[in-house]
Write a structure and sequence with these properties.
The complex is a heterodimer of chains A (287) and B (409). By secondary structure, chain A is mainly α. Chain A has helices at 2-32, 39-57, 61-82, 92-114, 137-159, 161-171, 173-178, 183-206, 216-230, 235-255, 261-275; strands at residues 127-129, 134-136. Chain A starts with a helix and ends in a 12-residue tail after the last helix. Chain B has 409 residues and is an alpha/beta fold. Chain B folds into 2 domains: 39-161 and 297-370, 3-Layer(aba) Sandwich (Rossmann fold), CATH 3.40.50.2300; 164-292 and 383-400, Rossmann fold, CATH 3.40.50. Chain A: One of its GO terms (cellular component) is plasma membrane. Chain A: The chain crosses the membrane at residues 12-32, 63-80, 92-114, 134-156, 186-211, 223-248, 260-283.
Amino acid sequence: MAIYLQIISNGLMLGALYACLAVGFSLVWGVLNVINMLHGSFIILGGYLTFFAWHLYGIHPVVMLPIVAALMFALGFALQKLVINRVVSAPVLTTLTLTFGLDMILYNAMTYWFTATPRRITLDLGAVDLGSVVLPVDRLIGTALALVLTLLLYGVMRGSSIGRAIVAVRMDRSAAELMGIRTDRIYAITFGIGALMAGVAGVVFATVFPITTNVTGIWLGKAFVVCVVGGLGSVPGALVGGLVLGLVESFAGHWFGPQQAITAGFVLMLVLLVTRPTGLIGVRGYE
Amino acid sequence: MFAQGILRSARTGLLAGGLASGLLAAGLMASSPALAQETIKIGAPLALTGGLADEGHKQDVVWKMWVEKVNAAGGIPVGDKKLKVELIEYDYQSEGQRASQLAEKLINDDKVQFLFSPFGSGHTKIVAGVGERYQVPTIACVASSESVYDQTLKYLFGTLSPNGGMTTAMVAFFKEKFPQTKTIAVLGRDDVFPKSMAEGIAKAAEAGGLNVVYKELYPVGTMDHAAALSSIKAAKPDWIYVTGYTQDLILARKQMQDLGVTAPIVTMVTGPSYKEFTEGLGPLANGISSSSWWHHLTSYEGQGVWPTTAAFYEDFKARTKGDPDYVHGSCAAAGEVIVDALARAGSLDKAKVRDAIAATDIQTFYGPIKFGPNGMNLSRELPIIQVQDGTIKVLAPAAIKNADMIAMP
């Protein structure tokens, strides 16, 4: 029994991190209909900023959180405004190819500057031992941060005029334009928020996982699965998708061996694609 | 009259031009074989960007050091001449498919006479296949899985010894140092080399009388080991053995600490062989043991541009400010195999050179190199190492030992 409690807590903590990494990707895909291949590299860029601030200047990752958020938002906003907006209404394959190309530039530039050597923030905060369950403190903080940030984004989307404008553009671009919403600007803000969320996920991840450009593709793949499982373009969708994926991987790893953990996640995605293409809590018509 | 003049001068011009180009062509034809013979070309598809960039750069730095040294000494003696070496490198971006295309380009366009294979058993398999097709001798310096050499490739030679040498000796050594060791848990990355090490240690442990209480593989791209480690914790092993590449092992060690998973002996392969591992883990690296193919504390002597291990170490240190690891040692030694084979073959004839490489039996700063029937360097005693206070200590073999083994803190 004790081991199941441990597996559930492992799964939930991992799931919250997955939700945090996927929410920006989901938003950009849902609103802009752009599959942002840069997302994994954005996460790692956020991680590197955090690592070097800590390693060179001793700045705590928590302090870096708002700084990385601002920098990544600016980067995402500029990228969308200057580059991606030019082709944003083209078929999805065009924007996918564009972001793929941009990703190759960013990925290789990071490998060139930082090398692919795995780096780690050695804070090592220890663990809370509850007898039958051990909870690593950095993962707990990561989980809390991931949840807070995701809920914060949810609040912004529900309660602010920018958030409502983003939702309006997502629902019907032409109608939103007729209502006086400047869609180009909303697109740039949305992409900026996507990059911001990737960046802060990077800050959270930097304390938990080794940072290396090797893993950009892995994080991108996870974001993809979480979106399909949870449902596209919505914050609760990413949260549910992340938690479900974390739990499924955790249980599959225990029951069928770690070799099958990733497979189980993809099987879940395939099953949902067939039975429920909108994802667990997605809205029909937005898949 | 005027027109005739023009015609004549045009004819003279054409004649002169024709003659000149003819002479030029003749000159080129005469000089091209001479040019081709003036250098020995070695082609290297390298992972200079992408996931294996760090490993690729390690190969790059020692090969350049070696080429400079060889050329400074006048080149490689072949017959009665000394030929300079030209190293042609292309970045294959850590993509296996591209490595194969670049190997073809090196052979067909650049006309290389030898190939240096890239990092890892997987990519070596790919490049060696191309070398075999064109009968170009391929020297692999970072491929130790026997499955790569079991494909009857006649032109592939590897300077690392078989993985097997790393497992049996380790089981015996640990049993001697920690006689209470009865059980082992093995977690390996599902990839050519880490998988063969995981399977090798499980076999060696069983043969050595240990009980294998957990043995699983994790797929490439795993970013969470919590499930596997929770299962290992429940099995309470005396020895935990994890294989993978640096990022996997850093993550696994960190999660072991987080989840309170420990054992008197924790081995990670090839973790501590790389300084990135100890740097990335900090104090968490202490106590972790491993095995390696070579260590700079060894003291070998032999032929080549570096007469002793110490000479290589000094040279490397001066150039990079860091310590060399087994990748540096093995790859630098790969060049010596070519020098020795060309001296004995006395020509650049592919078949003769291939046979000369197969008959290699030399002593180098890296240790002895003698290829078995499958093209792999023969087994020898490999160092068992452990991280103690952030530095690498050699526990065995006795000749180069500089510390006693400690239990995990």
